[in-house]
Amino acid sequence: MMRRAMALVLIAGALATAWVAAGPAAAQGPIVAQFWYSFGGTNREVTEAHIKRFNESQSKYRIEGTFQGDYFEALAKIRAAAATKTAPAAFHVIGEAVPQLAASGLFENLEPYAKGPNGTDLEDFLPGQTQNTYFDYLGKPAAPLMVLPFFRSTPILYYNADMLAAKGVKVPATWDELRDAAGKLTVREGSETKVYGFEVPVDWWFWFALLHEAGGSLVTPDGKKAAFREKGTEALQFWVDLVNKDKTMKRPPGKDYNAWTVTNTDFLSGKVAMIYTSTAFLNHMTENAKFKLGTAFLPGKVKQAVPTGGTFFVIARDAPPAQKEAGWAFIKWMTEPAQTISLSKATGYMPIRTSAVNSPEMQAFYRQNPNYKTAIDQLRTAQRFPYTPALIEIQREVIQPNLEAAVLGIKTAAEVMQAAEAKANEFLAKPQ
Amino acid sequence: MVYLYPVAYSAWVSLYEWDLVMPARWVGMANYRALASGEFWDVVVNTAQYSVGVVALSQAAGLVLAVLLNDRTRLGALFQASIFSSYVVSWVAVSLLWIWLLDPQYGLVAHLLRLVGLPAVNWLGDHRLALPSLVLVTVWKTVGYPMIIYLAGLQAIPGDLYEAAALDGAGGWQRFRHITWPLLTPTTLFLLITLTITSFQGFDIVKIMTQGGPVTATVIYVYYIYEQAFQYFKLGKASAAVVLFFIAIVALTFAQWRIFRRRVHYTA
User: Fold this and answer.
1) Contact between chains at A410 and B127 (C-beta distance less than 8 A)
2) Among A86, A320, A381, A399, which residue's CB has the most CB atoms within a 10 Å radius?
């Protein structure tokens, strides 16, 4: 009953949006197209400001932006809209969802647009930020161009430089150093921990970093089998030890982004000395930290490794051609060097064009704000995600909801990973 | 028709694999088999624990409050109104309020515990306490409803029965045991059925307070359906769960009605 009611609400919302979109377009004037986005807070304001600038920069197209909840809520709405053929012309998605949605035929092939008369310079997109450097095609031919980078991020280490200086602790570069530093930075009074040395959301994204740092990978090179059991256990065990044995890491409560918010709040209020979180929060941290803020690469184990994240622009294949044209014009404009520079400086997300990073403006900005350079330098350690429709299922159903069980002591890390590998293999074996 | 169509539609979808976007693929009973072999039984156990806790506690607390506040003074009315007010407030507001009250570091409850020298408790972050915490918050929110229904039931009991019992020398407990309780059984049955059904439909509190966590400790039935449908996009599996839910509610209501029919005293 509930499901039914929710589907109806979603469909009604999608229809209303479609009706609004079709209304003005029927009259004379600019081609109006919808853009759905998933950013709250500052990033929402930045996104809205750029939509406004795009609309003012020309008169042929008008983009109407709508906030659709976080990444995962927005995915549900996109699917509901697609089911009723009312998807917005342009939207953005997390990378992990791309293979599955592409297999569903949701995305327009962007190659004809990028190489057409109103094209863009694909060569100028920064390696590490593009579809082909985000995905490992597992020995198969590359998929056609379906996504362009929008807000792109990577996890970095944030530290309270005042606390590290007070204890004479140097910024950790390896797991052992991190563990050691967390111990030295933890402050206890009786049974109460006043300051934790370290905090990180018990989350897929950070686990993926640890998995690769330990020398593992998600799937076998041909993508047919899961391959994360041994090294994934090692990664998870690292957290289990820090939380339960050393008691120097705080496990932030809450699911998905709730835990991220707790981590950021604890760090800013001085309850924790070092955290892992996205470079996306750099502006927020810089503005709100009442201490000297430092950023660094994630500490490595057998190597240094990070995932990348954030989102990619896409165009809905089912949208009317005129709206797709408007959507493309908007995406092309948003990914131009001038816009990627202002988007990056206003948020902490990384610029996505080589010419933007090398521009005098950005170079001067990096000299003044060295914290902003960490993420872009760390890109050279970025790991690719396997291009398989099972990727989003492995993330959302197999890994993400189960990591916590080990840290809470309900299961051992090995048990969690053994069950996860079996389930991942089921998803990988499904006919695609 | 309005009620049966969604159920029939769910029954049909439950035989397919469907993610809203790709064409649905016929899989027969595979969704039901997937439910039977997976985490579904944990969800059933969670739901049963939540339901039994909510129904028993809110019914008991509602009865106690109704008996205590069964007078027509202004003070009684004030208490009744303030207790009932939380029933009227939205689930979202109540959930957010209690997230704040139960916060292990900054919350009022932790503060009160510290005042009496007890350690802070991580109510929602501990996988053994999270579900009982949700039960208590639900009871806090909904107790006004059984209270009001019981008050109505109490006021329908003729006063001369109590006078006659008092003349026969019956004490307070005996009057409750032999007059009040038997004559409230229709009310109790009604509450048992309605509270069971509403507790089965618990969703908002989970979505806002715990999102089913820690791990899966607070995934109750409707939240599970939501998760399968709108987090994992397994519409077929979610629909199979809907069908089983419908059957379970009909069966349970029928069973409650059968059992109680023999023990309900409809007239004085």
Assistant:
1) yes
2) A399
